[in-house]
Write a sequence for this structure.
């Protein structure tokens, strides 16, 4: 009986610790801000500063909501575009 109680107590403590340290509990995901892009990597249009999403801990700005779906279908392609934009702008602007 004591073993069952201890096992349940440990399980509850672990679950509570996981929830407390979860990035979701903070409300905002942790982001690296590596891609503070001004041009949408999908359409090539100026970004909407209120429209972004997090991909692999990087906040990526887009021009319209449909671009996120396109980005997620081929992320490598669009990450290359972001890297090229970053190199062209120079590191001081990023």
């Amino acid at each position: 009986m004591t073993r069952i109680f201890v096992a349940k107590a440990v399980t509850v403590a672990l679950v509570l610790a996981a929830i407390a340290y979860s990035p979701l509990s903070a409300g905002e995901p942790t982001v690296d801000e590596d891609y503070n892009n001004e041009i949408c990597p999908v359409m090539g249009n100026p970004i909407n500063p209120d429209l972004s999403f997090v991909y692999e801990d990087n906040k990526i700005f887009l021009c319209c909501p449909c671009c996120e779906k396109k980005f997620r279908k081929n992320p490598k392609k669009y990450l290359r575009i972001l890297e090229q934009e970053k190199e062209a702008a120079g590191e001081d602007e990023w």
